[in-house]
Amino acid sequence: MLTHFSSGLVKSNKIGFAFRALAEAASQAATSSSSSNAQDNKIFEKLTQPPPEIQPKVEQPTEKPPEEPPKPSVEQLENEIKDLKNQNLYLLADVENSRRRFERLAKELENTAITAMAKQLLPVADNIRRILDSGEKQTVKAIFEAVGIVDTELHNIFKTFKIERLNSKGVKFNPEFHDAIATIPGKTEESGVVIDVITEGYTLADKLLRAAKVVVGK
Question: Which PROSITE patterns does the entry link to (predicted)?
Fold first, then answer.
């Protein structure tokens, strides 16, 4: 009896194992079928999708080379040359007129300065004439004093026009302001020094107007 029971149990296990195998096979078949259907659906979707739009190729317009300006005619060139010559003549005439105007202005300024100085020198000339007219009636001392007054008056006028007398006597000889007309022996300390002034020197606005003629010691 035990043997019969064992034999039935083995058969039952075999049958259960067979059912499980069939169930697993059915499950795998279902899974495989589902996967196959999914792949088929993807392929179908790709086939049924509309093709992508192809944008038409737009051709870019080609740039035209810049047009060369028209060449001037011979007549145009001749007219331009004529205009340039006329402009040159006008400029030359303008420069010449300006030069003449400046020369006239400089002459007027010079005459104005001379007139102003002359007006101040006239009284000096009058005083010199008075001294000469009364010279025979005056003593030498009086004449000497009168000449000194006139000299002072004259140099005051010079200062008005920035004319200054050089202080030359007793100073070191300077060839820029002195013109040596003679040299004489002197003391050692007088070597190269102006001993005597023959003609006074003057400056105008700190510029040499006339060099002094001097005697220099050696």
Answer: GRPE
